[in-house]
Write a structure and sequence with these properties.
Blueprint (H helix, E strand, L loop, with lengths): L1 H7 L4 H53 L8 E3 L3 E13 L18 E7 L15 H5 L5 E3 L16 E7 L3 E5 L14 E14 L4 E6 L18 E5 L1 E9 L7 E10 L6 E10 L4
Antiparallel strand pairs: 1-2, 2-3, 2-7, 3-6, 4-5, 4-7, 5-6, 7-8, 8-9, 10-11, 11-12
Length: 284
């Protein structure tokens, strides 16, 4: 009885063959069943990574564009955006203070000193020491700008209303406009701005990159993809398309910058497109 029980506990050759055939069928079917979900997972992960990278780049551009000097944003061919970045700003004294110590901004003078009303947030960061407008334009000193409308005669890019800051104290700023004779227009709200540098974001789809530039010369001609400023830092790569536009706005509505970029993952070709709109001040 014990020997007969032992024989019944084993597997026959036919059973083993059947098991092998079934395992072979499963080995063929299972990868096919899971390939689709695994591929979808990888694609979703790649798209999520691309979205995160693109969103980070757009947030950086947005944060800096909100510091743009009013009416200084300009676009070239939809793939280059440039603006003058404000370091600080406030209100200048337009009427003499009681007593002999009040410094009024003289709009008939090429250079001078004026009081600003209230403290400046970044007074300690303002680079003074310029001697003429050229020191402002070439980034030797920070720039003073008043009532920048972006139109002829009041355009900081053209040097109409931009002066080098020659000195500063706890309550005053000194400036020099030379060779310009005087600031062309007064600000109805007595506003002034301190500009520290131009900033450009230039998209080059040939190299697949958006590059950020700053610290270069302020000039009438805008840097472009074909003629960028020196230096630059990579903001984002794998860029396959981009489009920048600017609506200057009106007297009752802020300007609007629209940024659109498309990133393409180089291995599997996953693609995402993001669009960001930025309201920028246009009241000088």
């Amino acid at each position: 009885m014990e020997m007969e029980h032992a024989r019944q506990a084993g597997f026959s050759l036919i059973e083993l063959v059947v098991v092998i055939i079934i395992m072979g069928i499963l080995a063929l079917i299972v990868p096919t069943l899971i390939r689709g979900p695994m591929r979808a997972y990888v694609q979703i992960q790649q798209r999520a990574d691309l979205v995160d990278i693109a969103d980070t780049a757009l947030l950086r551009m947005t944060r800096e564009l909100r510091l743009a000097l009013p009416n200084s944003v300009r676009i070239d061919s939809g793939n280059a955006v440039e603006f003058l970045r404000t370091l600080d700003g406030g209100r200048y004294r337009a009427q003499p203070a009681p007593g002999p110590t009040g410094n009024v901004l003289d709009f008939n003078a090429q250079s001078g000193t004026f009081d600003f009303l209230g403290p400046l947030n970044n007074l300690g960061l303002i680079a003074a020491g310029g001697s003429s407008q050229a020191d402002c334009l070439n980034n030797t000193a920070d720039c003073l700008v008043i009532f920048n409308t972006g139109q002829a005669g009041a355009n900081a890019w053209q040097g109409d209303n931009i002066a080098a800051i020659t000195g500063k104290s706890a309550s005053t700023l000194s400036f020099n406009l030379a060779p310009v004779a005087h600031f062309p227009l007064r600000s109805p709200r007595q506003r002034f701005y301190v500009v520290d540098t131009p900033v450009s974001f230039i998209c080059n789809t040939a190299t697949g990159a958006i590059t950020r530039y700053d610290g270069y010369t302020i000039a009438a001609a805008q840097p472009t993809t074909a003629s960028p400023p020196p230096g630059g830092n990579l903001l984002v790569d794998d860029v396959s398309a981009c489009n920048f536009s600017y609506n200057p706005g009106t007297a009752t509505r802020a300007g609007l910058v629209t940024l659109s970029i498309t990133l393409t993952e180089p291995t599997l070709g996953e693609k995402v497109s993001l669009l960001q709109q930025v309201h920028v001040p246009n009241q000088p």
